[in-house]
Write a structure and sequence with these properties.
Layout lengths: L2 H11 L1 E5 L4 H13 L4 E5 L5 H12 L4 E5 L4 H10 L3 E3 L5 H10 L2 E3 L1 E2 L2 H9 L4 E4 L8 H8 L6 E4 L8 H6 L5 E3 L6 H6 L2 H28 L2
Amino acid sequence: MTIEDVIRRIGEIGIVPVVRAATVEDATRAVEAICAGGIPILEITMTVPNAVAVIRHVIREHGNTVLVGAGTVTTRELAEQSIRAGAEFLVSPGLSTHVLAVAQACGKLAIPGALTPTELMHAQDNGAKLIKIFPCGNVGGPKYLQSLRGPFPHAALIPTGGVGISNAASYIAAGAFALGIGGDLINAAALRDGNLAKITQAARELVQAVRSAREVSLEKASSLH
């Protein structure tokens, strides 16, 4: 896929599930539960044991229908390993020019993390097309994102950290390009207990919440013209 294809796919779905799990088996089960809930995008974090093997496995099993990326990519080495495993995008908690350079050289999308306006500008200066705002929930949530949208109206921002079903609509209304969601979607207790139906249901609810919020935003925008 091209970088533009990946950006378009993330924008269409509007949700990037962040998969953190204690074992390869738990990660695989989480992936299957999320896909069953209608979210064909996955970010496997490098904090998952044998994360590269998980990425390879998920791509082998679901690569034709699911967009798979790597998360918590903080070094050049992790970026190279993730891309070799087949990751179509790389997500970082902060800005690493080394990760961006590897992704650009390989024709892959890198989504760096930023929090302040200065960090956001630095990410843009280094060619970032999508930017993760992390940890967004700790600094004001949707109101903070809306404040950033003032001076950066064309930036494609993905708030992450404290994002869930209860505030998904507020983030979309604030101008989020997509939502990065971890614990609120992939419930650790449900995963541990094998209650995958709970994760699948949460995925379905998030898909509906994003769709409904976008429809409302479109209606508001059209009423202004």
